Amino acid sequence: MSISHLDSPRKILDLGAGIAACAWLGGPGLVAFLTSRPARIAVTPVAATSGDAIDLPRITAQEVALLSKDVALVRDKEGTVWSVPLADPYRVREIVRDMRMLLARPSGEGALAISDEGKLLALSLGRGEVGARPVEVPGRMRAGDAGDGVTYLLAEGEGGGQLRVYPGTAPERGPSARVTLPAEAADFDQVRGGRVYCVVYKRGGAGLCVVMRDGARAEALLVTLDAPIADVAVTDTSVIVAFTGGKLALYDAASLAAPEGPKAPVSTTAAGGKGRPRVLLATTTKGATSIWIGTAEGEVMRAAVVEVAAAPEPPAAEPAAPVVEGPSKEEVDTLRKEIASLRSALEGKARELETVRGELDVKARELEHARGELDEKARDLATGRAELDGKARELAVVRGELDEKTRDLATGRAELGGKIRELTAENHALDGKVRELQNENRELTNAKSDLARALEELREERAKFEHSLGKRIDGVLPERARSGIDFVVSLVENRRR
Fold first, then answer.
1. Looking at residue 369, what is its pLDDT?
2. pLDDT in tens, 368-379
3. CA distance 119 to 140
4. What pLDDT score does 470 carry?
5. E-state strands within 105-161
6. Is residue 296 over pLDDT 90?
7. Any idea of the CA torsion for 168, 170, 176, 181, to the nearest 10 degrees?
8. By the 8 A CB rule, do 103 and 66 touch?
9. Which ranges form a coiled coil (predicted)?
10. Phi/psi of residue 236, nearest 5 degrees
11. What is d(CA 15, CA 19) in angstroms, rounded to the nearest whole number?
12. Phi, psi of 71 (to 5 degrees)
């Protein structure tokens, strides 16, 4: 049996501003610490003794998650989650908005986010880009923690809420265990979990809700510690608590979850360094567990969790065995029969194991065949994606042609508009000419009327003149002369007509 205790923390780096969050990426063995004002991020190997920070422009950072050694996610104070290329932090890209909490997963490649409405989103890294998709889980989520082999989500509900345990990295498949927290945990908004148990708490409070699970069963126990809590980290065997006063305490998980008895820490130590502890992070590499501490003044320190073997208990004295006689022939025969029976049973078990081995080989071949089919499907999908990319390029070309046609039509429409304006002006001019001709026609009509009246007057005058002239001629000229004159007058009239 071994006993754990905390070693004294040692300073690793100084970020120069209060540390707001931390994250751990187990594959390459990297830890990340984030400051808020000014926003800086430091990513360093777990075995490093120093490190450098890089500035994050335009972000008031609150939480961080490492997706790979090159890409991090940062949630700012306004609830926007950004994708940050660590090699070029000025190329940050907005992913989603209105997020209340970012849950980093130590395995990388993905993280979870909880929105202001309590909805759950999965953020994943693929081909250098970060995508977001909703995860359908019932209820309104308040907090959570994402581990390698388990996901804990705290949903609003009766009492202090319902803690759900989801195996693996896909919460949409449903929880394996549920437990209702005590009503005193209704305002708890932080979750830290391991493979077997987790704790729920609120920063600045002294209450700690410890949840132990065994398969589908889970039990919650509320304990009160002797000082306000700054942050908590959980390992497979221990719970490490950082208190706002600057002390670190390591509790044995079993004794902390026991319904009775004092909740005394197994080991305590001072956090040290500048400023009070603000965030904790537990990392395990090659069986060695380290606790990382981020302070309100920007210092990052590391303390080892040391496993010490307990002193063995002295063996109890055994009474002297009495002298007995050897077994009889009948007892020897009985033992031989039992041995033969056991040997037959073992041979039967061996045959059963051989049968099981054959079945496992068949399953392995089936799995290999299924893997081949999946690889073929993946190649088909890649081919389909390439075809879709080709179609997209063709559509882009068609769109360009349509844009060109649209521009041509717009130019033609402008030209037609000019022609219409010219024809309208010409129409107005023709209308003016028509009005002028109508005026001239009226004037000609009036002149014609005047001429007709003048002609009628002349006819009347001629008739009067002829009448008076006839009387005078009749009195002066003889008949033959008057007939000659009438002939001449008729010739003149005919000629005038």
1. 86
2. 888 888 988 888
3. 6
4. 67
5. 110-115, 120-126, 129-135, 141-146, 150-155
6. yes
7. 100
8. no
9. 420-468
10. -70, -25
11. 8
12. -130, 135
pTM to 2 decimal places? 0.62
How wide is the angle at C-alpha 238 spanned by C-alphas 172 and 158, nearest 5°?
45
Q: Look at residue 419 and give its three-state secondary structure.
A: helix
**Looking at the DSSP assignment, which residues form a beta bridge with residue 162?**
155, 180
Q: Tell me: pLDDT of 317 over 50.
A: no
Can you tell me the distance from the alpha carbon of 241 to that of 234, in angstroms, rounded to the nearest whole number?
9
Position 38 scores a pLDDT of: 87
d(CA 440, CA 225): 115
CA 195 to chain CA centroid, Å, is: 27
pLDDT (0 to 100) of residue 1: 40
Q: Which residues contact 363 (CB under 8 A, 6 or more apart)?
A: none
Q: What is the dihedral of CA 388, 134, 77, 28, to 10 degrees?
A: -70
Q: Which of 97, 95, 101 is nearest to 118 (CA)?
A: 101
When the pLDDT of each residue in the chain is averaged and rounded to a whole number, the result is 86
Long-range contacts of 80-87 (CB under 8 A, 24+ apart): 81/113, 81/123, 83/129, 83/130, 84/41, 84/56, 86/41, 86/43, 86/54
Going by C-beta distance under 8 Å and a sequence separation of 6 or more, which residues neighbour residue 29? Answer: 45, 46, 47, 283, 285
Question: Within 13 Å of residue 24, how many CA atoms lie on the same side as its CB?
Answer: 22
pLDDT at 30 over 90: yes
Is a pLDDT exceeding 80 seen at residue 45? yes
pLDDT at 27 over 60: yes
DSSP 322-358: PP-PPPPHHHHHHHHHHHHHHHHHHHHHHHHHHHHHH
Over residues 417-428, mean pLDDT:
92
Q: Which residue has the tokens 């009749």?
A: 474
pLDDT of the residue at 249: 93
Pull the structure tokens for residue 56. Answer: 């994050």
How many angstroms separate the CA atoms of 123 and 137, rounded?
15
Distance (Å) of CA 427 to CA 10, 431, 450 = 96, 6, 34
Is-contact 190 200, C-beta < 8 A? Answer: yes
State pLDDT tens for residues 320-352.
444 444 456 666 677 777 787 778 778 888 888
